[in-house]
Automatic annotation (TrEMBL):
Protein name per Swiss-Prot or TrEMBL: Raffinose/stachyose/melibiose transport system permease protein
Keywords attached to this entry: Cell membrane, Membrane, Transmembrane, Transmembrane helix, Transport
Membrane topology of this protein: Multi-pass membrane protein
SUPFAM superfamilies per the UniProt record, alphabetical: MetI-like
Boundaries of every ABC transmembrane type-1 domain copy: 67-257
InterPro entries reported for this sequence: MetI-like (IPR000515), MetI-like_sf (IPR035906)
Gene3D superfamilies registered for this protein in UniProt: MetI-like
GO annotation, biological process: transmembrane transport
Transmembrane segments: 7-28, 67-90, 102-126, 138-157, 178-203, 236-257
Location in or out of the cell: Cell membrane
Family from the record: Belongs to the binding-protein-dependent transport system permease family.
């Protein structure tokens, strides 16, 4: 009976897996077809594997420049969020005064504010200070990404005993050295989680870059894909090739970092 139930669960899992993979199959297969083949049959394999779609889409997307724009913004933003949030959470967790409690409450409450309610005044304010485009976007990501990150770090730091700080102080470490050399390495599991959450959000974000970036040479991949799809709406072979190119960096990044990602998540679950 138990084996039968397990077999049924396996079948359901396979079906769900195939359903999840079906959009990727359609995207990949149709990106290799001509326009005529797509309108004839979207499911069938292409008559010949034509890479011309990818060459043209790669050129029209200005993919190398767009990719490095996204990479630069994502890496800098995530790095700043991790450093700022971990240090802020450390200060809030070690100081149990009223002011720390109020500040932590403000950070948590900020997560409840919808971005749509502040986006127009925020962009207007940044425009007046000449802080649009790349620098302004990174600064905004720090502001919007810090609340959840501080909340996650704060919960983990509360589980680290203060005796660690006291031992470091007896060894001659100041506050910064205690945090950076003793406490921060112990936060690796939650840092991986914070990094994953913010990387996925920033890399795939369209709305904020569409409001902040007004120079064509600074467009991120989601923003460039929006204009690309608008230009090639009726040329699905090129649009799908462009979409496939856009998701390749994410897949490659995951395959290279999957061991660290899984280890970080599992370590965090154990702790």
């Amino acid at each position: 009976m138990a084996k039968r139930k397990f077999f049924i669960v396996e079948i359901i899992g396979v079906i769900l897996g195939l359903l999840w993979l079906s959009p990727f199959y359609l995207m990949l297969v149709n990106s290799l077809k001509t326009k005529r083949e797509i309108f004839t049959d979207v499911i069938r394999l292409p008559e010949s594997f034509n890479m011309d779609n990818y060459i043209e889409a790669f050129t029209q997307l200005e993919f190398i420049k767009t990719f490095f724009n996204s990479l630069l913004i994502t890496v800098i933003s995530v790095g700043i969020i991790i450093i700022f949030s971990s240090m802020a959470a450390y200060a809030l967790s070690r100081n149990k005064g009223k002011a720390s409690g109020i500040l932590f409450f403000i950070f948590v409450a900020a997560m409840l504010i919808p971005f749509q309610s502040v986006m127009i005044p925020l962009v207007t304010l940044f425009g007046k200070f000449q802080m649009l485009n790349r620098a302004g976007l990174i600064f905004m990501y720090l502001g919007f990404g810090s609340s959840l990150s501080i909340f996650l770090y704060h919960g983990t730091l509360n589980g680290i005993p203060k005796s660690m700080d006291e031992a470091a102080k007896m060894d001659g470490c100041n506050k910064f050295q205690t945090f950076w050399y003793i406490i921060f390495p112990m936060l690796k599991p939650i840092t991986v989680t914070v990094g994953i959450l913010n990387t996925i959000w920033i890399w795939n974000d369209y709305l904020l870059p569409s409001l902040v970036i007004n120079q064509e040479g600074m467009q991120t991949i989601p923003l460039r894909m929006f204009f690309f799809f608008g230009e090639y709406t009726k040329q699905w072979h090129l649009a799908l090739a462009g979409l496939t190119i856009a998701i390749i960096p994410v897949i490659i990044g995951y395959f290279f970092a999957q061991r660290q990602i899984i280890k970080g998540i599992s370590d965090g679950a154990v702790k």
